[in-house]
Structure formats: structure tokens, C-alpha cells
Amino acid sequence: MGWPFDPTVYTGLFLLGLGYAALARGRSDIGRRRSLFLIAGLLTIWVALETPIDSIGDRYLQSVHMLQHVLIGLVAPPLLLLSLSPSMVATLLKVPGLRPLTEPVPAQLIFAVVMGGWHLPFLYNLTLHSESVHVFEHLTFMAGGALFWWPVVGATSAAAGWRLGEVGRVLYLVFGTVPADTVAVILIFARTPFYSVYVGVPRLLPGIDPLTDQVLAGIVLMAIGKASYLVAILDIFFGWLARARAGERAAETLAAPR
Q1: b/e for 78-114, b at 16 or more Cβ within 10 A?
Q2: How far does Cα 91 stand from its chain's mean position?
Q3: What is the distance between the alpha carbons of residues 67 and 174, in angstroms, rounded to a whole number?
Q4: Cα–Cα–Cα angle for 86, 87, 93, nearest 5°?
Q5: Contact yes or no for 71/47 (Cβ under 8 A)
Q6: CA-to-CA dists, residue 49 to 84, 93, 138, angstroms
Q7: CA 101 to CA 162: how far, in whole Å?
Q8: pLDDT tens, residue order, the chain (258 aa)
Q9: Other C-beta atoms lying within 10 Å of the C-beta of residue 20
């Protein structure tokens, strides 16, 4: 239950920050707000991987492990994408093969495979027995999450080849809940534990047996996952509302007698 210290995590966070600094160098469209999003995204990854969340999730509670997955797959990626300016996105899209993956359909499918695949019992158990596989799993959650959020947030959504309007982005997010909700429902209503790793571990909390823990994992995935989608949908709605009101004020100004 102690605080882990994984040099690879700190190396990864350092490289992300260094890469961002290199990409942002000499650009005038960054701003303080984007820097705060970067800090929030990096901090979210650190909290997920370098606090007792990691120790407890790996060794004792599946529900805490699920919280880790949600943080690195559904919370950190949109924060990091919001830190990118339009000119930074344009530079990133020059990376060969990246643009096709960021389109809505491929992005949805990739994240669905990542979300569903890693929660299959044999793969999930494998990640807890192999550190290298576990690291790869975390990287795919972050990369898959970034692809999923790319068409709907910040400057990345404006650079998409298939640009989604407000309604399209909301529908994209609603449809995007299906893979996570499918995993969550299976975990919530299962009658036996799926993951053998958690069956024989010491019980940290009275009454939280493996099956109850699995149910809680499904609830965490569904609740926090939907919360992230809801925040995005509300942002889309209020952005549309602000533009609609600005348009009305402009029309009233033009119509006013001179």
C-alpha cells in the first residue's frame, strides 16, 4: 500500500513535458490556459501511476485498478489534447499515418478494442503477472484515449478531416460510451469473479469480497467514464449556446437603426 517509485513513469512524464516544450517553442498561440491543461494531464497520469492507487490496484482491489484505467484512458488524454494549440496540432498531423487514425470511425474502433481487449480475463491477469505487458497496457490506454478524444476536443477537433458539428460530437460521445458500458455491465452483473489475481489476495476492507470488488470496478468505470463524457457534452452545449447568443447580438446590431 506504499507509494511506488517507477523510474519509467517519471521518464515518460519528463519526455512528455519535454516534447511539449519543443513543440511549443516559438509559437504565439499557446497561452496560460493550455499550459494549465498540460499540467493537469501530467498530474492525472502521475496520480494514477505513482500513488497508492497503483499499489492497491495491482495487489488488492480491482475497483482501484479500474480507477487507474479510467484516469489514464478517459481523464488524462483530453486534458493533454486541450493543451495543444492549432499550430501544434498541424505539426503533429505531419507524423506519417497519424491523421487517418484520428478520424472518428478509426478512433472509436481503436479505443473500443483497447477497452474491451484488456479487460478479457486472460489479458487482464497477464498484465498483473508481467510488468512489461502492464506498461504496454497503460501506454495503449493513453494512446487509445488520445485517439478517441481527438475528434471532439480543443484544437484537434478543428483539424480533423471529417469535422463533426455540435450534434455530431455529442452523438460521437454517446456512442463512445458503449464499449466501456459493456465492460461495466458485465462486471456489475457477473455472478463469479473473472480475475483470478484478486481472488486470493488479502482483503483490505471488511465485506469487500472479490465479487463485490468486481461490481465496484464496473460502477467506477461506468460512473467516472460517463462523468468525463458529460463534462465534454456540457462544454459542447455551452460553446454552442455562446456562439448562438453572439450571433443574435450581431444580428440585432446590424438590424438596429442608424
Answers
A1: bbbbbbbbebbbeebeeeeeeeebbebeebbebbbeb
A2: 22
A3: 21
A4: 90
A5: yes
A6: 23, 28, 9
A7: 12
A8: 678 888 999 999 999 999 999 988 877 777 788 889 999 999 999 999 999 999 998 889 999 999 999 999 999 999 999 999 988 998 999 999 999 999 999 999 999 999 999 999 999 999 988 999 999 999 999 999 999 999 998 788 888 777 888 888 889 998 888 999 999 999 999 999 999 888 888 887 777 899 999 999 999 999 988 888 888 888 877 777 777 776 666 665 666 666
A9: 20
Q: Tell me if 128 sits within 8 A of 197, measured CB to CB.
A: yes
CA distances from 132 to 73, 118, 126, 129 (A): 18, 14, 10, 9
- 3-class SS at 123? helix
Length of the chain (residues): 258
Distance of CA 213 to the CA centre of its chain: 23
Cell of 42: 501530467
The C-alpha cell that represents 124 in the structure block: 487482464
